[in-house]
Amino acid sequence: MRPWFAWGLKLGLVGLVILAGFAVYLDAVVQEKFSGKRWTVPAKVYARPLELFVGQKLAKDDFLRELDALGYRRESTVNGPGAVSVAGNNIELHSRGFQFYEGAEPSQKVRVRFSGDYVAGLTQANGGNLAVARLEPLLIGGLYPAHQEDRILIKLDQVPAYLIDALVAVEDRDYFDHFGVSPKGIARALWINATSGRLVQGGSTLTQQLVKNFYLTNERTLVRKATEAMMAVLLELHYDKREILEAYMNEVFLGQDGQRAVHGFGLASQYFFSQPVSELKLEQVALLVGMVKGPTYFNPRRNPERALARRNLVLDLLAEQGSITPEEAAAAKQKPLGVSARGSMADSSFPAFLDLVKRQLREDYREQDLTEEGLRIFTSFDPILQLKAEEALAETLKRLAGRKGVDEVQAGMVVTNPETGEIQALIGSRQPRFAGFNRALDAVRPIGSLIKPAIYLSALERPSQYTLTSWLEDEVFSIKGQDGQVWTPQNYDRKAHGTIYLYQGLAQSYNLSTAKLGLEIGVPNVLKTLERLGVERKWPAYPSMLLGAGALTPMEVAGMYQTLANGGFNTPLRGIRSVLTADGQPLGRYPFQIQQRFDPGAIYLVQNAMQRTMREGTGRSVYSQLPSSLNLAGKTGTSNDSRDSWFAGFSQDLLSVVWLGRDDNGPTPLTGATGALQVWTGFMRKADPLPLDMPMPDNVTQAWVDRQTGLGSASGCPNAVQMPYIRGSEPAPGSACGIQAPVESVMDWVKGWLE
What span, in angstroms and rounded, lies between the C-alpha atoms of 460 and 469? Predict the structure, then answer.
């Protein structure tokens, strides 16, 4: 037997050497990954934080809607961060605190008092006045790596004590006593499985589970199981039990949200309860821990009965081991699952806006940085305005649904702050929550009459030649181009309107008078005005450009109208405010930029004409739904054969551009006034904006004129109205009422009015 024994000893020694080598290799693998960057964490994108101050225009219902989305708990008495109580117009809350670019915002108790749609009082819990309070921003999405894993990393000192107790009680009750592998646990599992006649319990420790999820695959072989056991022992040789437990809590798989895999208790807490893990109650902790065994099988949204039974079993185990009293377990069992509703702001994506954020970020960051480094992106996105825009679009399309072809109509919408150029809401489709072709950014469509303010601005920059009460001829004409083609524009109603005031050409969106004016100024000069307004596309100087043959996206139109709304100051549109690293260090800011490009006087006159568009022109239908005291400015746009329905308009604090049309460029039954304007009006009604109030520039003066002749008049005359003029271009003041205009002018006006 000696030769066989010798060979056996040699083979055993070889095996031990191989095993030792394999152990050394596994040890290197364990340490390299566990000591380095353990997870690739996607960038997190946040909405704007809601800032509270006395005098702020904010409806109480909108405030509560955002608190609900942030996962604040409605309680009779505020007890800890994330709690809110409501008593009439008074709201008390305990904010959570947050790390912003400028520094940390502390967690604090705040009392807010509302009066109408305004914040009337803002105090601390002790009664001291607060100048401003800032809530944490809503997480609106992430930029995911190829494996689509998502997690919110947490520290062990951030979790409720119940979570550690429950996890150990359910998954590995000997966790703090074994060395990575539990012989007692394996024996207990074998006994239970043998006596029950089926696989009831596994023998893997928490450390082994972490190794399997973190390093290995799910294949069920003896080799994989042996490797798992060795790596678990090695892991515990090098790292503390609490560090391993913290890693487990961040790694464990707890559900699937579409293509996104939900890993770790930090994200699972937000996904299922819209709350940070630190705020979880006993029954919520029990539910999440119970799901570890089977995230799909015990999914509380799909299988609430199974989830409830599993949660109660966890509560029983906690009581059995003395972590909680039987009374606490019984009380927790009476609580509902309390899972947040799907489709709320807290777990809904806003694909059009996230698409914009990605495009702007890619100009400054590598793709790997955006999907793996856990960057925190702070934006100007306003979730309340976004929902109101979506609701206005849905309601309008539903109301128009009876018209032929409306079901094929698509939509794009942009909402900005006129003063800052910050994008607050974005819609890329008639189904805003589905990712796909982003029409707000990519639908390049003829803008029709939206170009007209640029033509009238070009004219009013020449006050010695044109004023709002200059006479224009709205008559049929033809012009031959360099290519020999004859261009004969027409008004929408196929009529000519004779002699009209200049402002009427814009307010009523007359094509004939506008085209004549543009030709007088020169098409190249109009295109230069468009460039100064912010349009970067290069268009040929064809006469047809004067009536909107050129094509832009809704975002480009918003940039153009931003300059008109902001007093002639160009502010590039932006959606990102700042970027932080994963550990809260400032990385980059996107500051506010502004450049004056137009004389404020000329802009003031154009705004006056655009306000008349809303009062007496093509936009007048808005005041059937909005109060007459709300001063607004805007312009309708319709392309040939009603293929595109546009509206762009603004108040003091909101600018919005709406486009409706078909992706195949087919005709629709909608004009700018009957389509896009209806969406815009519905949005403004919900958003309740501030009335437009542009201060009159120093170079503008008001003059009394006769509404029929345009000549100077005295203030008390029957037909006297005030009109703004660039100083020096106003008509000579009338000395008395009844001054007659030249017969030709009067007859031209009468003819135009009658026609």
Answer: 11
Write the single-letter amino acid at 204: S
Which structure tokens are listed for 393?
A: 């679009």
What does each C-alpha distance from 131 to 51, 91, 107, 124 come to in angstroms? 10, 17, 16, 10
Helices (H), ranges, 336-382? 351-361, 367-372
Q: Which of 136, 149, 171, 390 is catalytic?
A: 171
What is the chain's percent helix, strand, coil content, to nearest 5?
Answer: 40, 20, 40
From 237, 275, 325, select the one nearest 31 (Cα to Cα).
237
Instruction: State how far the Cα of 746 lies from the Cα of 424, in Å rounded to an integer.
Output: 49
CATH numbers and ranges of domains, the chain: 44-137 (3.30.2060.10), 149-346 (1.10.3810.10), 392-448+547-687 (3.40.710.10), 698-739 (no CATH)
Cβ atoms 138, 48 nearer than 8 A: no
Residues with Cβ < 8 Å from 362, sequence gap 6 or more?
Answer: 370
Burial classification of residue 43, based on how many CB atoms lie within 10 Å of its CB (0-12 exposed, 13-18 middle, 19 or more buried): buried
Q: Is 149 a catalytic residue?
A: no
Contact call for residues 558 and 571 (beta carbons, < 8 A): no
- b/e map 536-572, b = 16+ CB within 10 Å: eeebeeebbbbbbbbebbbbbbbbbbbbbbbbbbbbe
pLDDT score of 186 more than 70: no
Tokens 């649904």 correspond to 401
Global pTM value: 0.86
Q: Which amino acid is at 86?
A: V
- Cα 396 to Cα 408: distance, rounded to the nearest angstrom: 14
Out of 449, 509, 578, 656, pick the active-site residue: 449
- Residue found by looking up tokens 């705004």 in the block: 607
Among 112, 140, 134, 147, CA closest to 45: 140
Neighbours of 481 (CB within 10 A): 11
Rounded distance, CA 131 to CA 538, Å?
A: 48
The answer to whether 171 is a known catalytic residue is yes
| Residue 414 backbone phi and psi in degrees, to 5 | -130, 135
Report the Cα 48 to chain-centroid distance in Å. Answer: 9
Token pair of 702, please?
């008001």
Length in residues, the chain: 755
What's the confidence (pLDDT) of residue 370?
A: 83
* Angle at CA of residue 461, ends 456 and 466, nearest 5°: 65
What Rg, from alpha-carbon coordinates, does the chain have? 34
Give the integer Cα–Cα distance in Å for 470 and 333.
79
Phi and psi angles of residue 154, each rounded to the nearest 5 degrees, phi first: -125, 155
3-class DSSP assignment, residue 414: strand
Helix (H, G, I), strand (E, B) or coil at 59: coil
Count of C-beta atoms within a 10 Å radius of residue 304? 14
What distance in Å separates the CA atoms of residue 489 and residue 614, rounded to the nearest whole number?
24
Instruction: Return the beta strands (E) in 316-363 as ranges.
Output: none
Q: Tell me which of 20 and 259 has the higher pLDDT.
A: 259
Q: How many CA atoms lie within 13 A of 354 on its CB side?
A: 20
Mean pLDDT, to the nearest integer, of 375-396? 96
Residue type, 553: T
- Do residues 449 and 510 lie in contact, with contact meaning Cβ atoms separated by under 8 Å? no
> Which residues, in sequence order, are CB contacts of 435 under 8 Å at separation 6+?
349, 351, 355
Indicate the average pLDDT of the chain: 88
Reported as a single tens digit per residue, the pLDDT across 593-632 is: 899 999 999 999 999 999 999 999 999 999 999 999 999 9
Per-residue pLDDT of 503-532, as tens digits, reads 999 999 999 999 999 999 999 999 999 999
Tens digits of residue pLDDT in 456-473? 999 999 999 999 999 999
| Residue 161 pLDDT | 85
Instruction: Name every residue whose Cβ is closer than 8 Å to that of residue 583 and which is 6 or more positions away in sequence.
Output: none
